[in-house]
Amino acid sequence: MSDNLKTIRELADEFKVSKQAVRKRLTDEFRANYVETVDRNGVATLVVTVTGYMLLKQHFSSGNDSEKVGSNVGGNTGNVDATSDSKQTTDNSYVFKILEQQLAVKDKQIENKDSQISQMQNLLDQQQRLALQDKKLLEEYKAEIKELKSLNIPKQGSEKDDSIPKENSAENRVKEPQNKKWWHFGRRM
After folding, report:
1. In a 3-state reduction of DSSP, which class is residue 140?
2. What is the DSSP string of 78-137?
3. Secondary structure class of 141 (helix, strand, coil)
4. Computed from CA positions of residues 118, 119, 124, 125, in that sequence, does the dihedral angle turn out positive or negative?
5. Which residues, other chains included, contact 46 with Cβ-Cβ below 8 Å and sequence gap of 6+?
6. N or C end of the chain: smaller count of CB under 10 Å?
7. From CA 33, how far away is CA 22, in angstroms rounded?
C-alpha cells in the first residue's frame, strides 16, 4: 500500500487499536476533510490522507502513551518519563495553540455580535422616534378634524334638507334584476 494513504486496517495495526476505535474517530467532518475513497482491486476502499494520518497518530499516541506510563510503574521508568515529558510539552503546546486559535475566533464572533447589537439599538431608537412623530401627527390631525367639525355644524332645517335627495323618489329607484339561477334546467322564470 502507499505510504501517503493508509486504510483503516493499516491504521489500526500501526496504532495497536481496534478498527472500530479508528472508525469512531472518523467523524463526518473528518471524513469530508481527510478521507478519500480509492478503488483497489475493484473494491472501493476508504483511505486516510497524510494530514488525517498525523491527526489520528497524535490522538492515538497521546492516549497510548499515558497507558504505557501507568503500566511501567514497577519497571525502568527513567526513559519513559523523559520521553513522555517531552511529548507532554509538545502536546501541551499544541493544545495551547488550538486554544489560542479558538479564543481568537471567539473574540471575532463577540466583536461581530457587539456591532450587531449596536445596529439593532440604533434601529430601535429610529423606530421609536418615528412612532413618536406619527403619534404627534395623528394628534394634530385629530385636532384639525375637531376644528373643522365645529365650523361645519349645519343649522337645523334649511340647508341639510335641500342638499340630500329623497330616497323614495322614482328617479333614484333602480330596478334590480331578477336573480336567475343557472341550475333551473327546463324551467321558465
Report:
1. helix
2. HHHHHHHHHHHHHHHHHHHHHHHHHHHHHHHHHHHHHHHHHHHHHHHHHHHHHHHHHHHH
3. helix
4. positive
5. 7, 8, 26, 31, 35, 36, 37
6. C
7. 16
The angle subtended at Cα 36 by Cα 32 and Cα 38, nearest 5°, is: 155
Closest CA to 26 of 3, 1, 60, 2: 60
Q: CB-hemisphere CA count at 13 Å for 163?
A: 7
Tell me the per-residue pLDDT of 59-96, one tens digit each, with 9 for 90 and over. 888 765 444 333 333 344 444 455 556 666 777 787 88
Distance from the first to the final alpha carbon of the chain: 96
- Give residue-wise pLDDT tens across range 120-147: 999 999 999 999 999 999 999 999 999 9
Could you tell me the three cell numbers for 135?
A: 403619534
The set of cell numbers assigned to 175 is 330596478
Query: CA 50 to CA 56: how far, in whole Å?
Result: 10
Give the global pTM.
0.34
Q: Which one, of 36, 78, 67, 77, lies nearest residue 53 by Cα?
A: 36
The amino acid present at 157, given as its one-letter code, is: G
Q: How many residues does the chain have?
A: 189
